[in-house]
Amino acid sequence: MKIAVVILNWNGKKLLEEFLPSVVAHSENATVYLADNASTDDSIEFTIKNFPTVNIIQNKINGGYAKGYNDALKEIEADVFCLLNNDVEVSENWLQPIIDCFQEDSKTAIIQPKLLDYKNKAYFEYAGAAGGFVDKYGYPYCRGRIFNTIEKDKQQYEGVSDIFWASGACFFIRASVFETLNGFDESYFAHQEEIDLCWRAKNLGFQIKYVSASVAYHLGGGTLNAINPKKTFLNFRNSLYNLTKNAKGNLFFLIIVRLFLDGIAGIKFLLCFKASHTLAIVKAHFSFYKNFPRFYKQRKKLQQKAKYYNKTSIVWQYFVKNKRIFNSL
User: What's the predicted TM-score (pTM) here?
Assistant: First the structure.
C-alpha cells in the first residue's frame, strides 16, 4: 500500500523546524510531501536544505486547507493520502496500524489516529481527540473532548472503533474515495471541511475508523488559535454549511433551532467580554444566509442517507445536564 504523507504549510518554518523531524524519522513506509500554500517565509528553502527526501509541491495561492489540499493531491499518486498538519509530532510505528486497518476492510475509507496534546501528552487534543461525532444540530464533539472539556488519556478509548468524522489535523483517506467525493469543498476555506467530507462519505456508505494504536501529538492553533474571531466565524458558518448539504431530515427546522442556539452562544461571548466573537457569529449567519441557495442546490444533488447523530443536542447534555465526559452521555 503506497502512502503519501502530505503536510500543508503556510509561513510555518518555525513549526517545520520543530515537527518535521519526527515525520521524516518515523515515516519510512511512506513518501513525505510538503504542500506549500504560497508562503512568503523561507519554509521551502529550509525544507530543501535540511530534509532533502521531502518532496515539495508549490501551490500558486494560499487557498486555505480545502483548496490547498485539493490542488496538492492532484500532483500525487498514492493509494492512501495522510493529510498532516505542520504542527503534529508523530510517534514511532504510527503508520503500520493505519495500513493494517485499511487492508483488513475495503469499506474503511477514512481513519484517524489517537490525537494527544503536544504540550501535555497525558491529555487528548482538542481537534479530534479519539474521533469525532455531531449532534442533530450539527455541533461537533469528540470522544475525549466536548466543547472545552478535555479528558485525560486513561486508555478509555482503545482499539479500533467507528466514528463519524476524523480530524483534519491527521487525516488518512483512500485516494480513490477522495476522488469519488471530488475532494474538499473549497467554499469552506478552513475548519470543518473534513467533517463535510466525512459526512458525504458516510452518506455514500463508507466507513470511518479510529485507531488508537497509532498516536500523534498535535500542538493546535498553529494557523488560527482559539482567541481569533475568524476561527469562530469559520466554525459557526461552516457547520451550517454541513447541515444544509448533508443532514437528513427537516432542514429548515434544524436551521431555526441553530439560529436560537447560536444566539445563546453569542450572548455568552458578550457576557464574557468577547464581543468580537459575538460579532463573528452574527457575520457567520449573514454569510450563511447569503450563500444558502448555492448550498441548497448542492443538497439536492447529494445523498442524505446516513443517520448522522446519536445525541439530539450536545448543548443540552453539556450545559444543562452537566455531562462533560463522552462516556457519560
Answer: 0.95
